[in-house]
Amino acid sequence: MALFRRTSDSGPPEPQPTAVETEATRAAREAAKKARPTPTRKEAEAARRQRVHRTLSKKEARAESSRQNREQRMRSLSAREATPEKALLRDYVDTRFNIGEFLLPSLVLILAVSFLGQLLPRITVISTVLMYLFIVAVLIDGYLIWRGFKKVLAARMPHAPTRGLLMYAINRSIQIRRFRLPRPRLKRGDKF
Q1: Predicted model pTM
Q2: What separation in angstroms does the CA of 62 have from each of 56, 66, 98, 134?
């Protein structure tokens, strides 16, 4: 029994190739020849290190870093946003008209008016009062959103946890619709 060594009687001898097969194998061998000699071990390791640890310019390194950060952010965002309660809440907020969407632009406008109002102190007082009234209106709208969503959640997912959803709803409702992430799937007034 020759398990690990060659024997002369290992089976029938292989048939001799014909002239056509020999020519085809010769052409294949010539096509498979390398254009350069096999690299030494030192050269192969240096090439591998070059592929793994590329030397980048500052601009390339910054672009690569921002690309990796963006990918990581999107992975963590999609993992965090994947719960069905949050998807339902996003759809609920996105189908409503929210006063909070106009909070940031109105605050910028009120701030600009208050800076211009250095000459007239009344304008500063009026703009400050308007700012506080608008913030109170956004808070009341956030309360109405939460109250309505709790009813929808109880009807569709009775045993779903509500932890963290209130702040998520308020944050989503005060973002400008165009800049919301994940993007709104539904338009205003759509059924969800």
Answers
A1: 0.61
A2: 9, 6, 38, 41
